[in-house]
Every structure is written in C-alpha cells, then in structure tokens.
Specification:
Blueprint: H1 2-15, H2 18-21, H3 40-59, E1 63-66, H4 76-82, E2 88-91, E3 94-96, E4 104-105, E5 111-113, E6 123-126, E7 129-133, E8 137-144, E9 150-152, E10 155-157, E11 163-169, E12 172-176, E13 179-181, E14 186-191, E15 195-199, E16 202-204, E17 209-213, E18 218-222, E19 225-227, E20 231-235, E21 242-244, E22 247-249, E23 253-257, E24 264-266, E25 269-271, E26 276-280, E27 287-289, E28 292-294, E29 299-303, E30 329-336, E31 339-346, E32 353-358, H5 369-386, E33 395-401, E34 404-410, E35 422-425, H6 428-431, H7 434-441, E36 453-455, E37 466-468, H8 470-475
Parallel strand pairs: 1-2, 2-5, 3-6, 4-8, 5-9, 6-10, 8-11, 9-12, 10-13, 11-14, 12-15, 13-16, 14-17, 15-18, 16-19, 17-20, 18-21, 19-22, 20-23, 21-24, 22-25, 23-26, 24-27, 25-28, 26-29, 32-36
Antiparallel strand pairs: 7-8, 30-31, 31-32, 33-34, 33-37, 34-35
Helix pairs in contact: 1-3
C-alpha cells in the first residue's frame, strides 16, 4: 500500500507539469522475484520513471535567441547548426540576409518564430539559394521545411529568378502569421505528399502565385489574405488541399485549378480580381461552397472541360497525332456570365481564352446560343482533326455560302468558303468590317487583353481577308503561375 501511494503522488506531480517533475527523480523500491523476474511493483516503477524522464525532456526544450545586431547568434544559419528536434529559434527584429546560407533548411520539429502579432513585421528574411527538389529538380528557395517544423511571424522575400519563398515537400508543416511578399515566383510551394497548414498569412505582390500546390498534397490554406499577385492560389496534380475562408482580392485571377486536382474551395471572399475569380481546367474537379464573388473583371468563374462539369460542347473527336509548331490547342464551349463562348485552350498550363461569344436568342429553339456554340466548337475541332491536328496551315477567312456572309476555315488561300468548312455566319455589322472580325479572333493574349467576336445577327456582306489559326495556339503560352502543372 505504501508503494502504491508513493506512485500516485509521483503521477499526480507529473500531471502538474514538467517543472514539478524536475525537482528530483523519485526513489522507488525495486521488488525482484526469486528468479530475478520483474514483479508488478517493478513494472509500475519503470513506467513511472519513464514518465519522469519524458517530462525532463519536455522541460529542457531548447530555445535559441538570434539577433542580427548583437548576441552570440547573429544568423539563422548559425542557430540551425545548433538546433535539434523541438528547438525554437526566436528571431529579434532585423533583416536576415547577409551572412546567411540559403536555402535555410529547418530540421524535423524546429520552429522559426518572429513577430507573431504583426504577421512578421520587422523580421525580414530575404534571399535564396539552390535547392534540389525530389520532384521538381533545381529550384531557388529561401526556406525549406522539415517534418513537423513550423514558421510563424516572419516576412519572407526571394527576388531571385524563379524565386520561391518557402518550400514544403512530402512533410507535414505549418506556416502561420507571416508575410510572403515580392517573391519572384510564389510565396509558398507545396509539393509531393505534403500536408501543409497555411494559416493567417499575407501574400502580397508575388509574381506568379501566393501559394502553389502540386503532386498529391493535402492540408489546408485558411484565413489568409492574397492581394496584388499573379494567381492567389494555384492547385495542380492530384492535390486535395482545402482552400477555406481566405480573402482573395486584386490579383490577376483568384484561384486556378488544373490537372486532376480536387480541392475544396469554401467560404472564401473572391473579389476585384482582374480576370476571373476561379478557373478550373483540364480534369480538375473542385468542390465549391459558400464563396462570395464580387467585381471580378471577366467573370466569377471559368470552368472548362472537367472543371466542375461545365464543358457543354458535344463529344469531340479523339485527339489526332499533332505535328508542326502549333501543338495541343483545341476548342471548347463553356457557359459564361453573359452567355456561351467558344474558347481556345491548350493543355493544363495555359488559361483558356474566349474567342466567340454567342448571344443571339431569336433564331428559334433549335439555334439557341448554347447550340450555336456547340456546333461551331465541334466544327473547329473537326477541321483541326481532319488536318492531322496541325494548325500551321489553317486560315480563317470570309466568304459567301447560301447568300450569307460567313467565317470559314480553309487549308490554303486558293480555297474558298464551302458548306463543309463553314464555321458561322456574320452579323451585318461584322460583315461590313470583316478584316477586323478576323483580327479579333486571334487578337487575345494570355492576359486576356483582346475582345472576343460577338455574333448576334446574320446578314450579307463581302470581302475575303485571312487570319492564321496557328496564332491562336501560339498565343496560348504556359502561365508562369502554372509552371508546375503536369502535361
């Protein structure tokens, strides 16, 4: 009974915290059986002693103070050389760049902590160095996170070519209460099978994206601000990362999802982005719930092909072998905020661009804007397919079919418009200025500066200018923010 009472006192002491347990290790009598085997009393003593030892380990957690102006440790690099699992590195205000060896690589369980209450104000880490990723080869990175490591309360900038602020790959890690600003590519990159928690940070003026997610990454991006950057968040691969309760405003586009990614996009305020609020392309299938959209330039969402099931064109022919310089471009019919549009798209790393808006509603039940969009989109895909998938020698031109001025697609300048190459009829206004119509078909760029052709009426006209379809494909270049997207 005396032994059990002493064990209970020890365990109650341990429950009070490591400080109490550190006073002295308990001295517990050891009872041994006749043959030296451990008795229940001995086993209980061992368990209690083990608890005591673990408490000592917790109590002796290492905290390193770094100050670039004074003290024994003036660089994060020096602190990391001393840091073991569970070490907390506290950063004094200042700029950490000169004297650092980049990338800074946090070992397992290490915490890098600065000014939590002001999201890293005054604690600035700037610079970058070569890092060889397991999945993306050589990169230029400021900080690489290890398993169960944490960053909180710092400002990170990497202005180097293709510079990334923080790299998280195949590990569980947390970045919170920090500012990612003026990174040449993205603020944070999440790769492989990482599970990152990215919470309560500010992403401002990053050239490509605030956060890029690839591979089979999971985790959550929540309660952050994304402002004045390329894409706020870009998700690709097979990632399932949740994007929740963020403020995403004033960027080029808010969220862009590609490949086979299936992120949950919920509770975000997505507003005043120059092009789109949310873009889903390729085979992406985001979950969308309770988001608030306001004032996005072209429209709130552009969902193409697999993106939310919004592809409306009829089944297109199988992709043919592709040759020549203009590879991979195709056409889709999608629902837009002001009707239906035939859009040009190219792979998983270029934003689709509207070419023709279909708005006329007085052609009867069989020729609704959606149906006209489907017909022309399928015609475009078939004509390209019949040409071996090569756009290099295809030309838009104007001609007359059935006494109506039309746009058609021909393989050489000697060919004229025929029923089998007709795309669509021109409105009276467009027929009177056919050259400008063709110019506008290929005038858009990846930044969406051009205007699509609007077709609302049919009438006669004249003229036969030409425009190369290959320019459509050539202008659909890989986005900087989707550099990581798989083909």
């Amino acid at each position: 009974m005396q032994l059990k009472s002493r064990q209970k006192v020890l365990l109650r002491s341990l429950a009070l915290g490591a400080t109490v347990a550190l006073v002295a290790p308990a001295i517990i009598p050891v009872a041994v059986g006749a043959m030296g085997e451990k008795t229940p009393q001995t086993q209980a003593a061992s368990r209690a002693q083990g608890l005591t030892n673990r408490s000592i380990t917790i109590a002796q957690q290492t905290v390193l103070q770094v100050d670039p102006q004074s003290g024994n440790l003036r660089t994060i690099t020096a602190a990391l050389q001393q840091a073991g699992p569970g070490t907390v590195i506290n950063l004094a205000p200042g700029t950490y760049g000169a004297g650092e060896t980049f990338p800074l690589q946090l070992k397992e369980g290490v915490t890098l902590k600065g000014n939590d209450t002001q999201q890293g104000a005054g604690v600035v880490i700037t610079g970058g160095g070569q890092y060889v990723s397991r999945t993306f080869a050589r990169q230029n990175v400021t900080i690489v996170l290890g398993a169960n490591s944490k960053i909180s309360g710092v400002t990170v900038t990497n202005s180097n070519t293709r510079g990334t602020g923080i790299w998280v790959e195949d590990v569980k890690a947390t970045i919170s209460n920090s500012t990612l600003v003026n990174n040449n590519r993205e603020g944070i990159f999440v790769a492989g099978k990482a599970a990152a928690t990215i919470e309560s940070n500010k992403f401002i003026n990053n050239a490509a994206n605030g956060v890029s997610v690839a591979g089979e990454a999971a985790g959550e991006i929540r309660n952050n601000l994304f402002e004045q950057t390329g894409f706020g968040v870009a998700v690709g691969g097979k990632a399932t990362t949740a994007v929740t309760n963020n403020q995403i405003r004033g960027n080029r586009s808010g969220i862009v999802i590609t490949n086979s990614a299936r992120p949950m996009v919920q509770g975000n305020t997505i507003e005043n982005n120059r092009d789109y609020g949310v873009v889903a392309l390729d085979r992406a299938m985001p979950g969308m719930a309770n988001n608030t959209f306001r004032g996005n330039g072209q429209q709130d969402s552009l969902l193409v092909n697999g993106g939310g099931g919004m592809q409306t064109a009829a089944v297109e022919p199988p992709p043919p072998p592709v040759t020549g310089n203009s590879q991979g471009a195709k056409f889709s019919c999608v629902q837009m905020s002001n009707g239906y549009a035939t859009v040009a798209e190219k792979g998983s790393s270029a934003i689709p661009q509207p070419m023709i808006m279909w708005t006329r509603t007085n052609l009867g039940a069989e020729l609704t804007p959606e149906r006209r969009c489907q017909i022309v989109t399928d015609r475009l895909n078939k004509l390209v397919s019949d040409n071996g998938g090569n756009m290099d020698n295809l030309l838009f031109t104007i001609g007359t079919v059935n006494n109506q001025m039309v746009v058609c697609l021909v393989s050489d300048r000697a060919s004229g418009c025929q029923p089998d190459n007709l795309l669509f009829t021109l409105s009276q206004q467009n027929a009177s200025n056919a050259a400008e119509v063709l110019k506008s078909l290929i005038a858009f760029s990846v930044t969406g500066e051009g205007s699509p052709v609007f077709e609302s009426e049919d009438d006669d006209g004249g003229g036969q200018p030409y425009a190369a379809l290959s320019e459509v494909s050539d202008r659909l270049q890989t986005e900087q923010g989707l550099w990581f997207a798989t083909p």
